[in-house]
Amino acid sequence: MTSHVLQSEWERLRPAVFGVAYRLLGSVADAEDVAQDVWLKASAADLSDVADLRAWLVTVAARTSYNVLNSARVRREDYVGPWLPEPLLTGPDAAQPVLVDESISVAMLLVMEELTPPERVAFVLHDVFSFPFDGIAEVLGNTPAASRKLASRARARIAKVKELPKASRSEVGRVLDAFKAAAQAGDMGALIALLHPDAVYVADGGGRVSAARVLVRGAERVALLTLAVTRRAGPDVMRVIEVNGEPALATYREGTLLWVDTVELAGGRVTALRRVANPEKLGHI
């Protein structure tokens, strides 16, 4: 395979390489590092006998991500406050093509975060990328039967998320527009009306910016906190963008992105408001 052909194929297959890394790591920065590492390995390798380049690249990405995932578990124990996946810009604003399906949703990534690293690898490779279990066993260093069991256990956990009613994109967009208007107007009553009585607020500041370090529950408490944070930050622009395949609300001040909000809905009301404010997770947007 010539360097020109590899370059052409890389442009076509890079979304799969990045996609497997992001789903395993929940970090855009780490997934970019993995993709770069895979490209360097591919450029230096003799690929003349490789029958399926996509499978080869995804396998290398999965093996590299698996190593990162194991070390990330240790780092995450020291993370300040709640951890949320790094927002992945999708849709028309995305700088590069991104593989979009339900497995990159914030809710799905949070459930996958509860899996063990081997379970996560087995699920992502088999259920998302249709890898055979003998190939997954090579990545994990186990047997195809063991990989099958890992994927089955992960699938059972993730099924609980898939079974939940999912709001349409238009409904999420409508609620975010109303949430934006209420926050900008300082309208406490309107905010409470948008929030489920048992709504939960999760903020990821990573210790880099001021953010609630515990979950905040209840419509009134979430509304009060939302208005207080908005007043203190003094944003001048709030707009709906697309991250992780879903509408999200991006808040800016003087051109700097302050935070990105994603929501879960039930009956047209917000049951979960998740805010990523850690600037290290926002630089790519």
**How does the major sheet shape up?**
6 strands, mixed
Low-confidence stretches: none
Q: Can you count the helices?
A: 10
How many E strands?
6
Which word captures the global form? globular
For the terminal residues, how far apart are their CA atoms?
Answer: 35 Å
Tell me the β content.
15-25%
- Helical residue percent band: 40-55%
Structural class: alpha+beta
- Which strand order does the major sheet show? 2-1-6-5-4-3
Question: From N to C, what is the helix and strand string?
Answer: HHHHHHHHHEEHEEEE
Average of the residue pLDDT scores? 93
| Radius of gyration, CA atoms, in whole angstroms | 20 Å
Overview in brief:
The chain is α+β, with helices and mostly antiparallel strands and 285 residues long. The chain is 53% helix and 16% strand.
What does this structure look like?
The protein is α+β, with helices and mostly antiparallel strands and 285 residues long. The chain is built from 10 helices and 6 strands. Strands 2-1-6-5-4-3 form a 6-stranded mixed beta sheet. Strand 5 and strand 6 form a beta hairpin. Helix 5 runs antiparallel to helix 6. The mean pLDDT is 93.
Question: Could you give the topology of this structure?
Answer:
Elements: H1 3-25, H2 28-44, H3 53-76, H4 106-113, H5 117-128, H6 133-140, H7 144-162, H8 169-185, H9 188-194, E1 195-204, E2 216-217, H10 219-233, E3 237-243, E4 246-253, E5 256-266, E6 269-276
Parallel strand pairs: 1-6
Antiparallel strand pairs: 1-2, 3-4, 4-5, 5-6
Helix pairs in contact: 1-2, 1-3, 2-3, 3-5, 3-6, 4-7, 5-6, 5-7, 6-7, 8-9, 9-10
